[in-house]
Structures are given as C-alpha cells and as structure tokens.
Amino acid sequence: MADQIIETKEIKLTAKDFATDQDVRWCPGCGDYSILAQVQRSFPDLVGIKKENIVWISGIGCSSRFPYYMNTYGFHSIHGRAPAIATGVKVSRPELSVWVAAGDGDLLSIGGNHFIHACRKNVDLKVLLFNNRIYGLTKGQYSPTSEKGKITKTSPYGSVDYPFNPAALALGSNATFVARSLDRDTKHLQEMIRRAAAHKGLAFLEIFQNCSIFNDGAFDILTDKKTKDDNVLVLEHGKPMLFGANKDKGIIMDGAKPKAVEIGEGKHRIEDVLVHDEFDESPLLATLLAHMTDDPSMPTPIGVFRQVTKSTYDGDVEEQITSVTSKKGEGDLEKVLFTGSTWEVN
Amino acid sequence: MIDNQPKENSQEKIKYTAKDFTSSQDVRWCPGCGDYSILAQVQRTSPDLGFKKENVVWVSGIGCSSRFPYYMDTYGIHGIHGRAPAIATGVKVNNPNLDVWVATGDGDLLSIGGNHFIHACRRNVDIKILLFNNKIYGLTKGQYSPTSEKGKKTKSTPFGSVDFPFNPLSLALGAEATFVARSLDRDPKHLQAIIKRASEHAGTAFIEIYQNCNIFNDGAFELYTEKDTKPDNVVFLEHGKPMIFGKNQDKGIKLEGLNPKVVDLANGEASVNDLWIHDEFDESPARAFILAQFTENENMPLPVGVFRQIKRSTYDKDFHEQIERIKKVKGEGDLKKLLFAGNMWTVN
Amino acid sequence: MKVGKEVLELSDVTVRFAGDSGDGMQLTGTQFTNTTALVGNDLSTLPDYPAEIRAPVGTTYGVSGFQLHFSSSDIQTPGDSPDILVAMNPAALKVNVKDLKHNAAIIININSFDARNLKLAGYDTNPLEDGSLEGYNVVQVPLSQQTSKALEDSGLSAKEISRCKNFFALGMMYWLYSRPIEPTLKWIKDKFKDTPLLAAANEKALLAGYYFGENTELFTTRYQVEPAKLPKGIYRNISGNEALAIGFVTASVKSGLPLFLGSYPITPASDILHELSKHKNFGVRTFQAEDEIAAITSAIGAAFSGALAITTTSGPGVALKTEAIGLAVMTELPLIIIDVQRGGPSTGLPTKTEQSDLQQAINGRNGEAPVVVIAACTPADCFNMALEAARLATKYMVPVLYLSDGYIANGSEPWKIPEPDSIPGIEVKFRTEKEGFAPYMRDENLARPWAIPGTAGLEHRIGGLEKSNVSGNVSYDPENHEFMVRLRAQKVKNIENDIPELEVTGDIDADVLVIGWGGTYGSITEAVSRARRNGGRVAQAHFKYLNPFPKNTGEVLNKYKHIICAELNMGQLAKFLKSEYLVDIDSFTKIQGLPFKSSEIEKKIETVIGGYSK
To answer: Which residues of chain A neighbour B288 with C-beta distances below 8 Å?
Structure first.
C-alpha cells in the first residue's frame, strides 16, 4: 500500500530525531547504550530511507527494549518471535526498512528456528544480535552462546552445554550478509550498521555486548586497549588479514586450515597472508573466519565476513504477484465468485 | 536417574534377527515409498548394533516417516510435530543407558522442529537422527518443504516457491554437529553401513537420507539412485581414501585452496596422488562444510558417506557426571538436611 | 432408454462411493456431485479420507469414501445412511456396510472379491456367499473386467486401464439415477487435454458404464430425482474451505486491504492455503511459514503494517499460537485466526471432525485475554463468516477466532453466488491525522487507531507489556492494569450490540429447545424438522457467535423448560451457557470423529418429549 506513504521533503535528520521521549532503562554501564547511540548516529546517513518507513521489531529481553527508544515505528513483541513478525511486516510492505533487535537468548534459543529460516529465505531484514552470552532480564542464566562450564544461577556447577557459534550458524543457514562488531568500537559499529542497511537481503550483525551485571568483562580482551590489537582481526575487503599492534601477525592457510603466524624477516611473507574477500560466492572463507572464534590460538575477526547478492524473499513475492497479475489480469471478484460449474435457478 | 536402569551384562547377549525388530503393525506407507527401504535397513542392521532390544527407544514427530516407531518392535513414541529431538533429549538425559533414535522428515525436523534440531546438535546429546529427506510434505498432501528447490510448484505454491532451501548438512555443521552423514534409500548396503556408523558414534549423529516420495515428488533423487546415472553423479566418501568416482573410476576431486574441482584421471589432467583424501576425523568442520556445499554446485557429484565424525563429550554424559561429582563432594542428598536448613527456631 | 425399465420417482437419495484410496473415489464423488448440482437438485456431501496418504491396496484402513445426499427439496445434511453403496473391493464393503439403510442397494465390483482381497479386508468367509448381506439388494458387477474389455484397444497398460474403472462405475450410476453424462465428458476433455489417450479411455469407460446400466438385466429400475425448488439465482457447489478462502479474498476487495495469510500445512486446513495461493493477482500474499508460531506472528507483523491478516490452522496449531494470540489482544491489532477443528487431543484424528476446541478458543490463553469467537454453520456459510470476521476485527481492532470444522470444511453444498456489488463494503480507516494522535486513544467502539508504518509523524511503539490507556506507554501501575483488563473485555462484550440476535425457529412456543453451534447446524435442523413432521413440538436456535454471545441469549434460554444442547464434544457450549446464564441444559454429545446423524438427535428429542402425539 505504497500510496499510504506521505511524501515529505528530504530533511537531513540528526541522531536526536531518532530518540524518543522514553527514559532509557538499561543498567548503567550496559553495552546496549552504545549500540543505541551508534544506531541513532548512523541512521541519519542511511540513504533513501525515510524515518516513517523504518520499523524496529524485537522479542523479549534487555535488548528487546530497543524499539521503545527509537523514534520510528516499533514493536516489542514476544520472546523469540521478532524475525517472524519482521518477516510478516516486510512481506506485507516491502518498501519498509525493517530492523530486528535481539539478544542471544531471544534470537538463538527460543527464536532459533525463526532466525535460521529468515536467513535461508533471505528476507530483507537487518538483524542485530546483542550477544552478551547471558540471560540478563531473567537475572543471569547461561545462554546458548555461553561458554561450556559457565557458572550461572541455573548452572551453579558449570554448564554442560556447548555453545552456538552464531556466525557459523547463520552461514550454515545460507545467510547472505554476516558481520560482527563490538559495542565499544563505536566507529566500527557505525560502519557495520551502515553496511547492513545497504545490503539487500537478510543482514546479520553480531555485536559483542557487555552485560555489566551478569557477565561483566566477557569481551574485555577484545575491547581493552592493551589486549585488543593482538586479539582482534579487523577484516577489510581485498586486504591481507593482518593484526597485532604493528600489524606483524597474519593469517595464512595451512591446507584447508587457517593459522596465525608472525610476519616479517625470517618469518612468514606478507604475500602468503590470506586476503579477505567479502564477496566470495562460496561461504567457505566466511565459515573459516567464523570458526576462528572458537580457536584460542586465533584472533577474533570483526567486520563483514560475507556479503553476497541473491534475490530476496519479499522481492520474489512481489515479483510473483506482478507477473501473475500481468498474466491473469487484476483480480476480478466477479470471476472468482462465478467460477467452476455454475447453474442458474429460475 | 531412575533406579531400574538396565544393567550392562546382566544377561547373556542375545543374537537378534531383523524379525525381532518388526512389530505386529501393518506398515501403512504408500506402496513404493522409500520409507520401506529405510525401515528394512534399520531392521536388518539393528541386530548387529550390539544393543539390547529393550533399551532401544525410537522417537518421532509428525509426518509420513514419523510413523516409523510403530513398525519397530522396540520402545517408541510418536510425538508431536517437530518435537522429536526435544522428546528424545529428555529420554536420553533421564536414562543415558538407552539407545535413542529419532525418525523424522524434512518438514518435521527442519521446518517446525528446526530449533530443537540445531540445539540437539550443539549440545551433542547422544541421539541418532535419521532425516528422511524427500523434499516435500507428504502427509498433508504435497506442499513444498524447506528442502524443496526454489521454484518448486506444489499445492501451496502454484506459481513456484520463492524460498531458497536449507542445505541440511551445512545447517547441522553450522550448529556444531559432531557426526554428519548422508545416504540413499535405494542403496541398502550403504545405508546399513551408515546406520551402523551412526550407532557407534557417541553424540548427536545426523544422517540425511534421500528418500523418494513416489506420490508427491517422484524421482527427485533418480540421478543418484539409477544404475546408469549414479556412478557419474555420486561420490562415496571413505576415510583415508582419495575421492574417486565415475563409471570407470576415472574422475577425482581435487581441492585447490578452498575450491573443490572435478578432475579427469584418464586424460592425465591429474593423478590419484593429487586428489583430496577424505578425513572424517578432521577437527575443523571446514572440509566437511566444503563437501556439504557440493550440492550447491552443479559441477560436483553428490557426496554420500560420513562427512565428519569428531569426538566431544556428550551432553547426557556430562550431565550425569556432574551429578556424580557433586554427590561425591556434597554427599548423597539428605532430605532432612534440605528441610531443616536456614534460620530455624523451636516452638515448645 | 431401453423400453421395459421402470423409472421410479424419488424425493431424495443418499449414495456412497467407496474404494481404495487409489481408486479415485473422491474424484468420482465430486463428478457425480457436480453433475447433480447442474441437474438442479439440492445436495450435501461428506468426503471421508483415510489418515494414510495411500495405504496398502485392499486394506480397510486404505478405504476412501464419498457420500452425497441429493434431493428435490431443501436438505441440510449429507444423509444419515446411504440408500446405495458402490463398493470397489471387499475392504470398502466391510468398512461401509454397517452404515447402510436396511434394504439398501450395494453395487459390488465382483472382480475384486478374490481370496487375496477378502483376506486383506479381514473377511474369513466371502460375504457374498455366507448370507451376511441378507436384506440388502446386492448387485454384482464385473466392473474391472468390463472396463478392461472396453479399453482393450486403448493402447494403455493394464495398470492404466484398471485406473479407469471408477469412470465405468460413475457411468453406471449416471444411468441408474438418470443424470446427464455430458458435464463429465466435458470435464474429461479439459482435464486430460495433454494426454489424449487417457482422455479417450476415460470417456470410453464412462460411456461403457452408462450403456452397461442400460443394457444389462442387473438393474430393473432406474431412478429420477426432480430438481429442487431453490431460490432464483446462479449457483455453484462449494466446500467450506473454498468458501472461506474466497470469502477472505472478497473481504480484502471490500475493505481495500491487501490479504496476508501466514500458514503452516495442517489437516484439514491446508486447502485454504492452497486456494489462497492461487489468487496472487488479487495481491494475496500467502506465506508458508516454518512453523505455526511464525505463521501467526508473521500475520501479526502484517496486521501491524496494514494488511488484512489471517492465519489458518487446526486445533494443535492453535495451541502453538496461543502466546501470539495474547500478543494480538494486548497490541489490539486486527487478526483473524481460523481453526478448522479436528478430533483431539494432541494429534488425535486429523482427518475426522469434532467441535472440541471451543474452550480453547474462548479461554485458552494466559491472562485475561478475550477475543471474538465466531463459527460458521454450513459449507457456504464459511463465506459469510469470513466477511463477518474481517468486519469485526478491523472495526474493533481485535483478534477474531473463527471456528470451522473438518465436516463443513470438506463437505459441500450448492451456494447461491452473491453479486459482488451487492456485498456490503467493509469500512477501514487508517489514522493519518497527526494532530492529537496517541496509539491507545479510543473511538466510540473503544477501538484504538490503526496507524501504519509509512505514515509520517505517527511513529509509535507497541508491544506485549501492559499499556497505559491513550498514550500506549508501558505501565506497571496497578489501577491502570485493572482498567485496561476491563477495557479490553468491555470492548469485546460491546460487540453483542453489533451482531444479530439469536433467532429461534420451529415451534417458538414449545417447551423444548434444541441448540447447537457451528457445523452441527445441518444435522440439528434436519432432526428438528423431522421431529416436527412426526408431531413433536420443538424449537431450535443455533449459535454462530460464541464470544460475545448474542444479546438476547439469556432471554431465549429462560423461555424453555427443556434445553437440549447437541455438540461434538463433551458439552463445552453447555458448560459456558450454564455458567453464564444459570440455566439447566441437557447436554447431548458425540465424540467419535463423525458428524451427528439427524436420527440420533431426533431420537433424543423424542425421548425428551416422551413420544410424539401424532
């Protein structure tokens, strides 16, 4: 129903235009504040997207309060169902820009099924995973991304669950855009939000987010100045995968396995370092990168793991409606009612 | 854990036959359905799996294949749509001595039950999941499923579906599955071998079985099952062996970096020494993932066999070990201690 | 027509076709139905599918049946007991013989009565020889053999030829009941236009069957049923699922809202998804979701963004959708949940009918979560109630739970097609006015405004947490919660002023009132009219609105000394009425996965009255 949209003159919006009158009620020090700020800062730059056409959908959890704080259309729904509701919005109104804010429990535990299906269908949604590896709102139970052995209220002797690797799961579900960022790397996060917005299709952005109450410091090694350089690999398309304060470490392939090595005289040559290709049609490189997260001998990659172009579910639905309509003509109620074998009683 | 758990070696090993696993129920699948073969191979293999019949539990959801438990003379639960992995997890966690199997279809396991499936995989619960993948909804009479190819015309998609399908093996690998394999309903020997392998694996074992639905999706897998096309379109994976296929065993698969390629062994393009040697036990899931992606590439043959098998402790075992460990530390649970705890006072 | 065969005039006939699920009995029944409709009889059908897709040939659980009742006057049900059975094999005979009228005719495919098929059907002795069919008029026809003979030069394989035998049976029945064969000949031509060999064979089999009836001495009589005197108009035969589906297409056109269906395959509701997926040129978006929950939540998303949003399912699916229905209650969005009921609990009897989801529909949610509950009462009525569901949902911004059942969903009846222009419009207004907007402000119906994404200046947030009235802000305030709970209840309750009153028919001043709801309408109506014909004095009232109940319900119930409530469950409506109106109700129930026979209800009426005083 495109005719519902009222045309307005382009006005350059600011971050403030996306803030609501609601008090933000996250715990002081929560990583969610930064994510909200980066979204609000980057949204004015999103090209061709009007504020009134933006819809934020969430499930249940701390991060799911997100829509209340964005001055756009918003829907705080039920636990785990955000991707399914968002799919309904997008398929019903493809011209809308539909965003999902979800936590690791919401998206990967109770909502796992909707997530993998939205990925495979390539519905044009932007899914932001606030991954803090813990249940916050319910006050500290282990989540499907908590490391094995984690001691929480529901696992006082350590959890016996192996965690999901969210990026690997998304890639296994054929996601067309997979990226990762950090709540505390504001510039990088803004960039990733813009990249996700620009992708046509399902964009999955995992954001490592600190829960200062129940899982404080989970990502310190990746965000602290002292340790960051040696532990984070910033992916850039077409560039060799180098890391370390002096960019003196790199990733090479050892058969089909990536390996972190030192680069330089008498060590490995920079020419041997793996070059990142975001647009590789095959999901293999991205999968290798995703699994580096599980490997203590490897740095944690952030950036765009993969971005490929594929038709979107909502686009295809629209196209089918157009093509069937052009073949069969606009729907005619008379024809549908008076169809099949009819007879007249006089 | 329940008390009357079966004790190992409490009685002499009995040698079963396939018949011992056949229940009294008439099998009600459509004549010609691939499910018959899968049932037969399970029944034929079961005597060799070394378990006691009374310890076997088959769990299913809803769908044609989910009738499976009725036909196995073991314990069985015909559950609700999509929930078989969750029910099976409960059975196994409660009593790890049981051999728990799941029979399920592509709609059951991957559509409505997708979440339970991926969580069972990541937890590595020691259950065996047999996916009867016929790429269609049979019991509800022919709607497309999450494994149906895009553009498929079915009752619910008269103009062609607009869904990209799942690749079940990629999904399982993405969900950390420790055992991933594929077989074919029409290759009884191979299917038997794979069932046996799954049974021996400690942890979630996932077998995708291509299964023909002769009513709603007949011939979907003919290319891989018919004598004249099978050799050129199927590569049998064997651990430690180079990947060779073809009518005359003249084609091989070479791995160039991350890219697999079919090479000709007859015209000198490549020799056996250049070929990819299959390693089932590779810790990294990368190669298994490459193999899983073969089906997305029309130049590649269909791999069947064990893609990956790695050792990881199982959820059910860890679960019970933790209980035992805590019992050792804290002593057996004492009800009196539990009740008479905290701040107490006496009223006289 | 050959001279010497007597033509007997009948007022109504019930026929049943039965055979293996691969024998094409549904097709045969449908063809007979369509032709009968064209002749101008009133009719009602009852297909009976096995739960198996294609069970092993010859077994009783593989038997598929199709029953058709047609008449020269107005009828309400597919008939209690068939006058004639066509049994393609021993299993079909075994399953169906117990339902037949005394003296009924049984046409048997004698070629299938061999030792193997008798054994498969579980017969120890041949029923044709052991006297067990005494009292029936058994006609043995070499149906397979005659078909093979007729098609020996057809160029088809033996298997293909065997598949044509249903057309032979159909031809024979056309002759026996004086039906024209042209409509089916035309259908064959269209259906098999790409396979001329099959078209020719089926045509030949049909004609061979027809001539067989005419020429053989097996049938001494042929029957005639005059056209029924139905109201003037153009008619088509329609099933409940079909009527429901095009009802929502109509509602979409009439409201100007695009139709969105979120659904997951489930028996017996899948046909609605199939039907709606054909109407893409109406802009209908059918989303086959990954599960029942995604089916309803995607529909909620579509409703939020301005679609006429519906989700179709059966009882087990409603169970899964429960939490999401609560969300629609809280967010006050128009959403229609269609439950085509089947036998429960759990997976239960997927292909059989029941009315056991009423409690689930009215009360099956956490918290105080009232929704509008309505039910269609005949196959054609499924069309009307679709329009009604859309009207109520959008006018009051409220979820509507629409109950159908397997019986009316798969059954069919002639439907007088309404002229599109004569169907009233459904007025829907999206909020566009910025001034004074608040997401939970109220109109005179207590409905909140529908402000859809894309409307500049109305950006707002909704959700499942308790809302402050008017502002829609999250509120944990105790008084506000009580206020909102009561407001949502009042909004639904007020709908009683906007729906038809409960109508009493029959002997309005009688002592006995028979009530029911939904799909039992035909059986109850037939029973009441028979009881009255037989001299009983009895009134009838039928519920289509179950929450809220019609305004005059208490008044009606209080008028009668004895109220019989007939339901296909354990007395769910009776329970609601008793607790709401404190009246005594005689609950008459049946839970066999089958519809009521009119005779069952009539007998109950007779017992209550204490015999007829004719």
So the answer is: none
B28 touches C at CB < 8 Å: yes
Nearest CB partner across the interface for A285, out of B258, B322, B325: B258
The pLDDT score that the predictor gives to residue C132 is: 92
User: Above 90 in pLDDT, residue B181?
Assistant: yes
Q: B113 vs chain A: nearest CA distance in angstroms? A: 7
Q: What was the pLDDT predicted at C215?
A: 87
What tokens does B332 get? Answer: 């057996």
Domain definitions of chain A by residue range: 10-235+278-291+300-324, 240-275
Q: Does residue B1 surpass a pLDDT of 50?
A: no
Task: Give CA–CA dist C385/C307, Å, rounded.
Answer: 19
User: Are B140 and C267 inside 8 Å of each other by CB?
Assistant: yes
pLDDT (mean) for A303-321: 97
Query: Is B162 in the C-facing interface, judged by CB distances under 8 Å?
Result: no
Rounded to the nearest angstrom, the minimum Cα separation between A186 and chain C is 26
Choosing among 3.40.50.850, 3.40.50.970, 3.20.20.10, 3.50.50.60, the CATH entry for C236-422 is 3.40.50.970
Does the beta-carbon distance from C291 to A329 stay under 8 Å?
no
Query: Which residue among C288, C316, C347 places its CB closest to the CB of B156?
Result: C288
Q: What is the pLDDT of residues C344-353, one digit of tens each?
A: 999 999 999 9
SS3 A134: coil
Interface test with A, best of B81, B110, B115, B178 (most A CBs within 10 A): B115
Comparing CB atoms, the residue among C452, C462, C464 nearest residue A78 is C464
Mean pLDDT throughout C33-43? 92
Please give the DSSP secondary-structure letter assigned to residue C578.
H
Least CB-CB distance to B118: which of A169, A310, A313?
A169
The answer to whether B159 faces chain A, any CB pair under 8 Å, is: yes
Asked if the Cβ–Cβ distance from A341 to C38 is below 8 Å, we say yes
Are A88 and C233 an interchain contact pair (Cβ–Cβ within 8 Å)?
no
Give the three-state DSSP class for C335: strand
**C289 and chain A: CB distance < 8 Å anywhere?**
yes
Residues of chain C with CATH 3.40.50.920: 504-609
Rounded to the nearest 5 degrees, what angle is found at the Cα of A253, between the Cα atoms of A250 and A257? 115
CATH topology of domain C504-609: Rossmann fold (3.40.50)
**Rounded-to-integer distance, Cα B195 and Cα B130, Å:** 9
Say yes or no: B170 contacts chain A, CB-CB below 8 A.
Answer: yes
Instruction: Work out the average pLDDT over A214-226.
Output: 96
Express each pLDDT in C97-115 by its tens digit.
999 998 999 999 999 999 9
Segment C316-374, tens digit of pLDDT: 999 999 999 999 999 999 999 999 999 999 999 999 999 999 999 999 999 999 999 99
Instruction: Flag whether pLDDT at B3 surpasses 70.
Output: no
Contact between A122 and B164 using a beta-carbon 8 Å cutoff: yes
> How far is Cα C475 from Cα C465, in angstroms, rounded to an integer?
8
Q: State the average pLDDT over residues B160-177.
A: 96
**Is the model more confident about C152 or about B12?**
C152
What ipTM describes this predicted complex? 0.90
Neighbours of C599 (CB within 10 A): 14
CA distances from C67 to B236, C17, C178, C521, C588 (A): 53, 6, 18, 18, 25
Task: Determine the CATH number of domain A10-235+278-291+300-324.
Answer: 3.40.50.970
Taking 80 as the threshold, does the pLDDT of residue A1 lie above it?
no
The domain covering B18-225+313-339 belongs, at the CATH homologous superfamily level, to Thiamin diphosphate (ThDP)-binding fold, Pyr/PP domains (3.40.50.970)
Share of chain C above pLDDT 90, in %: 92
Question: Is the pLDDT confidence value at B105 over 50?
Answer: yes
C545-547 β-sheet, strand order: C285-288, C259-263, C308-313, C335-341, C399-405, C372-375, C545-547
- Nearest in space to C67 (alpha carbons), one of C77, C59, C54: C77
The CATH superfamily of C6-225 is Pyruvate-ferredoxin oxidoreductase, PFOR, domain III (3.40.920.10)
